[in-house]
Design brief:
Immunoglobulin-like, three-stranded antiparallel β-sheet, 4 helices, five-stranded antiparallel β-sheet, 168 residues, alpha+beta, single chain, 10 strands
């Protein structure tokens, strides 16, 4: 009886390590793209941004995730966060999986703070637009409003939060 319990525990531990290695492989190789980001609605409460998400899984392993919660920050201050939903998606191997539309509500108070920072930098923005080279990149750097995005989800029952990805 004791040997059966020992072999069962070793088997469960080996299977757990195998699944963790599979998930590590998937997390290293999977790419996430935002498709059709757009301003969906403008009203008295603020702006509503929407986007679809495509997850490309080039591995032979599959993983089940919950709908990701996307958080938009600026200098560590939260600007907006998408609503959480108890929806699961199976990320199939060797395919691209589409996730439902993700909405971010950005209040006018947050937008006003960013616009005030941009207005103060108008001379720098004009100079960047006149400079040679990649004008779009120069103007975005001159605007200087840092924005980061993170997402969090559960993958096969384990919590995962992405590192902050700098948008601007």
């Amino acid at each position: 009886m004791r040997n059966l319990l020992r072999f069962t525990l070793i088997g469960v531990a080996a299977y757990g390590v195998y699944r963790l290695l599979q998930m590590k492989n998937v997390s290293d190789l999977v790419t996430v793209r935002l498709l059709k980001p757009r301003i969906h609605k403008v009203d008295l409460s603020g702006l509503v941004f929407q986007t679809e998400v495509a997850i490309n899984n080039p591995t032979r392993d599959s993983v089940t995730i919950t709908k990701p919660v996307v958080t938009l920050t600026s200098n560590g201050n939260m600007l907006s966060q998408s609503d959480s939903a108890n929806l699961s998606y199976k990320i199939a191997p060797l395919s691209v999986t589409m996730i439902d539309t993700i909405s971010l509500n950005l209040a006018w108070t947050s937008v006003a703070g960013m616009v005030a920072g941009i207005v103060r930098r108008i001379p720098e923005i004009v100079a960047a637009a006149r400079a040679g080279g990649d004008v779009t990149k120069n103007v975005i750097q001159a605007i200087g409003v840092p924005m980061e995005m993170t997402f969090s989800t559960y993958a096969n029952g384990l919590f995962f939060q992405s590192p902050a990805e700098k948008l601007i």
